[in-house]
Amino acid sequence: MTFHSILFDGAETSTAIDERDAPACFADLNLEQVIDAITAGKEEYNLKPFFHAPLTTVDAITYRHEVLRDLEGDAVFGYITAFAQEMRAMRDHLAQADRLRYKYQKQGWFLDAVAIYCEAVGRLAHDLNLGDIRSRGLLAFREYLTNYAESDSFKSLVAETTQLEADLSGVRYCLNIKGNSVKVTAYDSEADYSAEVERTFAKFKQGAVKDYRVGFPGGPDMNHVEARALDLVTRLSPDIFLALNEYCERQREYLDGALGTFDREVHFYVAYREYVDLFKPAGLPFCYPRVSDRSKEVYAREAFDVALANKLVRKNASVVCNDWYLKNPERIFTVSGPNQGGKTTFARTFGQLHYLASLGCPVPGREAQLFLFDRLFTHFEKEEDLTNLSGKLEDDLMRIHEILERATGNSLVIMNESFTSTTLRDALFLGKKVLEQIVQLDLLCVYVTFVDELANLGETTVSMTSTVEPENPAVRTYKVVRRAADGLAYAAAIAEKYGLTYEGLRGRIAA
Questions:
Q1: Helix/strand number for the chain, H first, E second
Q2: Which residues contact 24 (CB under 8 A, 6 or more apart)?
Q3: CB distance 378 to 414 below 8 Å
Q4: Are 288 and 64 in contact (CB under 8 A)?
Q5: Contact predicate 230/100, CB 8 Å
Q6: Which residue(s) pair with 476 in the sheet?
Q7: Range name among 107-116, 324-333, 377-386 with the lowest pLDDT average
Q8: What's the Rg (C-alpha) of the chain?
Q9: Helix or strand or coil: residue 414?
């Protein structure tokens, strides 16, 4: 079993991953908020490019699902996070070494960094062989790590590091300080006068007393006196410090490239699992979706907008979940209903689930079956740009034209309140033309609209409607259900509530 990457199977590639920018759909779907929340506190790993790169095969998605399932176990997750903490400590030591000025102190911090690395590798190799691991990714990594830990080169690194640490720990010397003069001499079994003084005066000690000892600065930096004293110490044990110097030159590239890459990539999973855990106290489910690159029959149960949910959970507010499905030959959701009723949230949920599924991540919902798209396009209403010489409607048309030019039968298109700047008649005409092209392309689409007539354009179109409380139409439920568009029903219900129906008005006038 050959280990390539813990994130990418053999068919996928991480080439130029750091050059990936956020897809254009991120702003409309609030995915930038989601990724910011996931990666918060882990900036050192530069994880965002991984979230900007959807996978292209179902097997690549399954590969990540397998690793995530292994990391659901607290034992394996604990092994990985412990390794990450040690690797972070190693990098901190290397960074501190770079900041220091004096040669031998820099080399000492470098030696400590390598010692931490050796300990981390040995412990993880041992721990992973105890863990219940089934994923292809972690099995291949465990095999690679075991072979590396048992290799002659790594064993030599451990032995040399351990011996050098022991040799340096054995260096003993004396400091004779008289006035401004500091004399460094070899240790010759001189008595430890500090211990002698404490032993002599111990019998006079009564309770807590004031400590008159002078403290030394606790920071890592050395002053010029300490540095000069260290230079003199190196003359007392030249062979040991020569070995340290040669060691630092020889082991400059000690870090195994595959382990360094693993330490970065595995935090994609660690960050996502920690993010999902935030929703557990609120009872919000995440699931591993079934993903297909062929079937366009999609569904979700108890799905929710994860960006919105993250805000609501922090406020201890309730989160509304929705169910939806499309069966052949259905391809398009037309979503209508009252303003502020959850239509845009429904559209974002549809897009978020498909995008997160394309990353190989669990998605917000109890159960889901989703389509592996090639591109995800969004067309949300935007404020008019006063610097743009074209009008808002023209801008909308140009944007949707570009989307339809680039879209294929495997694309997803999410449109939200398009063509609101024109008349109802023109919005209906333009909406029909756009949907006809979408039907012709046979792609999946969510079309949020205020034009109820667009909800019934044929067997490929499914009407979804945001609902209100029957007894109080002014109150939104934020539930979006599969049923025929009935915009007039809301107006009639509100008119009835406030006595503004024809009969009501006649009665009031007569009175």
A1: 18, 14
A2: 377, 378
A3: yes
A4: no
A5: no
A6: 468
A7: 377-386
A8: 33
A9: strand
Distance CA 321, CA 349 (A): 10
Sole residue written with tokens 């979006």: 480
Average pLDDT score, the chain: 90
Tokens encoding 182: 């500091």
- Counting every residue written for the chain, the total comes to 511
Query: Which conformational region is residue 283 in: left (phi greater than 0), alpha (psi within -120 to 50 degrees), or beta?
Result: left
- Given its phi and psi angles, is residue 358 left (phi above 0), alpha (psi -120 to 50 degrees) or beta? alpha
Which amino acid is residue 188, in one-letter code? D
Residue 380 near residue 417 (C-beta atoms within 8 A): yes
In SS3 terms, 181-213 reads as: EEEEEECCCCCCHHHHHHHHHHHHCCCCCCCCC
Q: What is the pTM of this model?
A: 0.88
Instruction: Tell me the two tokens of residue 264.
Output: 């970065």
One-letter identity of residue 448: V
Among candidate residues 478, 465, 480, the one with its CA nearest the CA of residue 337: 465
Q: In what order do the strands lie in the sheet with 332-336?
A: 376-380, 412-416, 444-448, 332-336, 461-469, 472-482
- Where are the alpha helices (H) located in 26-151, listed in sequence order? 26-29, 31-39, 48-51, 58-71, 74-99, 103-128, 136-149
Q: What are 345-378's pLDDT values in tens digits?
A: 999 999 999 999 999 999 999 999 999 999 999 9
Q: Which of 458, 430, 441, 454 is nearest to 335 (CA)?
A: 454
pLDDT of residue 177: 86
Tens-place pLDDT, residues 196-247: 888 888 877 777 767 777 776 667 888 888 899 999 999 999 999 999 999 9
Residue 336, C-beta contacts closer than 8 angstroms, at least 6 positions apart: 343, 448, 449, 450, 451, 452, 454, 455, 463, 464, 465, 466, 485, 487
In terms of Cβ atoms closer than 10 Å to its own Cβ (0-12, 13-18, 19+), residue 372 is buried
Burial bucket for residue 114 (CB in 10 Å: 0-12, 13-18, 19+):
buried
Tokens of 379: 């067309």
103 phi/psi in degrees, rounded to 5:
-50, -55
CB atoms within 10 A of CB 268: 24
Express each pLDDT in 434-446 by its tens digit.
999 999 999 999 9
SS3 call for 341: coil
Task: Band the pLDDT of 489: cuts 50, 70, 90.
Answer: very low
DSSP alpha helix (H) spans, 316-391: 343-358
Query: Which one-letter DSSP state was computed for residue 174?
Result: E
Tokens 């959970």 correspond to what residue? Answer: 313
